Amino acid sequence: MKKTVKKRVICRLSSCNILSFPVLLNAWEKNHIDQEFEIIIRPEPLTYKDLQAGDVVLYSFMTSALPGIHAEIKEVRKKDVLIAGGGPHITGDQELPFKIGFDTLFVGPGERNFLQFGMDLLDNRPIKNLYQYENTPNAYDDFNEYLPLSRYMKTIGPLEIMRGCSWNCSYCITHSHSPWFREIKSIDTFFRYAKQRNLKRINFISPSSMEFAAPKPGQVNIEKIKELLELARSYDFPFIEYGIFPSEIRPDTVTGEGLALLRQYVSHKSVTIGAQSSLDSRLKDLHRGHTAAVIEPAAALANAHGFTANLDFIVGCPDETPGERQANINFIKTLDKKYRIKAYLHFFIPLPGSAYGHRFPSFLSVEEKDQLHRLKSAGIATGGWLDNEKQALGYLNWLKEHFPTYYSRFS
Length: 411
Hints:
alpha/beta, Rossmann fold, Transcription Regulator spoIIAA, six-stranded parallel beta sheet, 15 helices, 39% helix, 15% strand
């Protein structure tokens, strides 16, 4: 009897999707779909020589990765394969992904989309151009049911406990729907599996960790956060992280009670606070929902409870002036003299689907860059903004060369 050859499904792994594929594959594994395919995890770039006719190639990516994805798909397209894509860029923009060669796209939260895609493949049904997330109660159930655990990957990433955001910041697309909060029962299930796999470090994904399970935006549900952290402690994980990347804290939700709770349970000695700017005018334009006045008290409270305050700032925002940049630099220097802080500087990248999605960054002068380099040398700030600036330039130059009509929308 001739052995049936399984269709190959190739997950093109990269640094920006290493946390995405485990939960997507988990949706297939729970429904036994994966057993009908040959699942391949591929961290290296693909060429047509690596592929067979009929392969399914999966990509998930952020905006900054699009130029590299475009170059690779030119190679992949030389074989008769099905190319599917998801991730934050695709949720905000489907036009460019289709133009560079994708056959089908997953828009929005991925579990249900990916599950339907797998069933369509399995039953030889036509593959849709778009697998579109719909805001239904079932989609919320998916968020609780599927976990970042896959037998095909060793990686166990942070557990996403909050999906969506109320604030609709101008530079961000996390606001794609109102917040969902993972239920404690689902979190407990994750902890149990993580313990079985001997995981030492537990951390979480949340755009605003002190708003976990909050009844309204800007409120803190201290009892629910305590319940979550007590549950983590009950499993004796050596390292518990909460309130640090990737579970940052909005400065207007920093409270003494909340920080005292973190001090009791977490293993780290710093917290990440999303300041973004020292100027009310910019914070208003960013739709942050808080003023600059809450930033310094947040840093002071962090210090009072034994934490260094890691403060996120964005440089290079659209229409940002030299005076604005200097005000932020001076503010960081002032805080450094008074508190234990470190400024985490990020350069603005336009993300499709956001209010700033078609806005150019404001690029820094040589003198301004020198000032930021000096802040880094003094240990006051990080230098990650420089890589972000290169990514922004790479993306914009790629658009200008390959998709000038799309590029012309920027201002």
